[in-house]
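Budget justification aside, the reviewers requested a transparent look at the raw inputs and outputs of the sequence design task funded under Objective 1. We therefore reproduce one unedited record. The lines immediately below are the structure tokens for a 499-residue chain.
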């Protein structure tokens, strides 16, 4: 999202050239896949965490430039909102003590960044949506200074031909007639990357899609937006509405939204890039000088810049990624459905659950996607986002010869079926057993106590209103301060006190 863009407006001729170059990129990608011009198998993972900036009162700070200057580290980068920054962790091999190594690196890096940010009047908060954000933080003056963001916002509004409206019906209802794309910046995410070979891409992507609902149920951490209690994980519906390029008429015609779960299981990474080209007009029609056909013919590795830029404007919850590292092309599945936070150990518990589970599901002799209709996976995603830890999920019946689906509480599904598979998967990755047990134990306790970040936030606000007679905004602000204090202890959210 933060990739630099030099152009400031898109001409009509740019779209025609860009469309031709996109088709050329896709043709070259298809040839590379057929000729197996990709990196050898490597169990490589990486992660990114989007972060919020708040002051000691828990209120947003629109000062990411000053904070990044104070931190002065290439690991931290700008994001869409001036109240956002992002930390990127270098790729590493899945295995051994990787999760403990990541915990130490993240703890050290975030504590350092927090100290440096304090000098700029801000503190760092890991949460899916900063609860104290107000509508005044959703205007263009809250957008980071980056040509890509400005152009993208202009293009979304031009495609819609009308203002962006929000209408989210949850525990309460939020209806706003006009906001800018900056409203999307309220949603801060955890992004988990897994490098895969072309032959394994489809099975890993399908497996990742199949568990998005369970991931959201377990990891929900975004129940408040602009003073309203909405979905337990409000980010997906906010993302879809704030980035929607469709007018009401185009929605009625069935035009796909650029924030998209998808509509089918896939057979190849090429399926997803082809859908991007088929369904989504370019929002950033900016061409570079590379001729990918000539680069490939000369034995080089093409950047496929137009395809990568276009792919970055289609917000799939599991995104295909083509990249080049050390002169070699590779593919990744980028899992984007989880919110940030609440703590480093909660984040790594979410990561351990995902990496372990996707390993086993991608290799099952009867793959999950042959037994779970895609429409049910989409419904699971919606249920997980709306209801969090209290969600129900559709899942294939277990046992020899079992057929059909059963609807289960997400906590039962995780405890009885998915956690054992995640244990098995982490063993197959070669994760140290003590680390496996520590991080999956956090997932288990969330289920047993029926407490995740969203549940804690909502329960705390309700208690503050009932026991201390606070109005909604006062209760949300007081809860946010408590959240920040608990986050800094580093203890997992299921252990946080309500009083």
């Amino acid at each position: 999202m933060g990739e630099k863009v030099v152009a400031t407006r898109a001409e009509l001729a740019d779209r025609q050239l860009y469309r031709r170059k996109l088709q050329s990129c896709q043709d070259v990608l298809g040839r590379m896949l057929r000729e197996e011009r990709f990196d050898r198998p490597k169990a490589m993972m990486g992660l990114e965490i989007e972060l919020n900036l708040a002051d000691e009162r828990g209120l947003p700070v629109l000062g990411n430039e000053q904070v990044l200057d104070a931190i002065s580290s290439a690991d931290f980068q700008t994001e869409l909102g001036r109240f956002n920054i992002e930390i990127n962790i270098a790729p590493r091999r899945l295995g051994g003590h990787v999760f403990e190594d990541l915990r130490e690196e993240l703890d050290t890096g975030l504590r350092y960044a927090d100290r440096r940010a304090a000098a700029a009047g801000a503190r760092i908060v890991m949460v899916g949506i900063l609860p104290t954000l107000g509508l005044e933080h959703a205007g263009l003056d809250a957008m980071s200074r980056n040509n890509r963001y400005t152009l993208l916002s202009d293009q979304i509004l031009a495609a819609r031909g009308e203002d962006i409206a929000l209408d989210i019906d949850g525990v309460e209802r939020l209806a706003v007639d006009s906001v800018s794309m900056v409203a999307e910046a309220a949603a801060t995410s955890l992004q988990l990357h897994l490098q895969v070979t072309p032959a394994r891409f489809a099975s890993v992507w399908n497996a990742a899609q199949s568990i998005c609902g369970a991931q959201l149920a377990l990891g929900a951490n975004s129940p408040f937006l602009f003073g309203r209690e909405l979905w337990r994980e409000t980010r997906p519906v906010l993302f879809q509405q704030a980035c929607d390029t469709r007018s009401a008429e185009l929605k009625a015609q069935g035009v796909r939204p650029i924030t998209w779960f998808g509509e089918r299981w896939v057979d190849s990474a090429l399926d997803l890039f082809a859908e991007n080209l088929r369904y989504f007009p370019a929002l950033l029609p900016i061409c570079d000088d590379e001729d990918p056909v000539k680069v490939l013919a000369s034995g080089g590795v093409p950047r496929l810049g137009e395809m990568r830029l276009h792919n970055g404007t289609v917000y799939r919850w599991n995104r295909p990624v083509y990249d080049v590292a050390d002169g070699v092309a590779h593919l990744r599945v980028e899992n984007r459905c989880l919110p940030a936070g609440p703590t480093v150990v909660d984040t790594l518990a979410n990561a351990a659950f995902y990496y372990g589970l996707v390993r086993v599901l991608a290799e099952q002799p009867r793959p999950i996607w042959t037994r779970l209709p895609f429409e049910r996976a989409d419904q699971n995603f919606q249920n997980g986002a709306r209801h969090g830890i209290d969600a129900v999920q559709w899942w294939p019946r277990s046992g020899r010869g079992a057929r059909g689906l059963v609807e289960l509480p997400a906590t039962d599904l995780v405890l009885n079926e998915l956690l054992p598979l995640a244990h098995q998967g982490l063993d197959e990755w070669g994760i140290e057993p003590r680390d496996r047990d520590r991080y999956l134990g956090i997932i288990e306790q969330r289920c047993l106590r029926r407490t995740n970040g969203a549940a804690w936030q909502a329960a705390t606000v309700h208690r503050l209103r009932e026991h201390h007679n606070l109005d909604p905004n006062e209760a949300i602000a007081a809860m946010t301060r408590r959240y920040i204090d608990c986050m800094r202890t580093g203890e997992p959210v299921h252990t946080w006190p309500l009083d």
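The first strand starts at residue 44 and ends at 54. Residues 316 and 326 are 27 Å apart (CA to CA). Computational costs for records of this kind are itemized in the attached budget.
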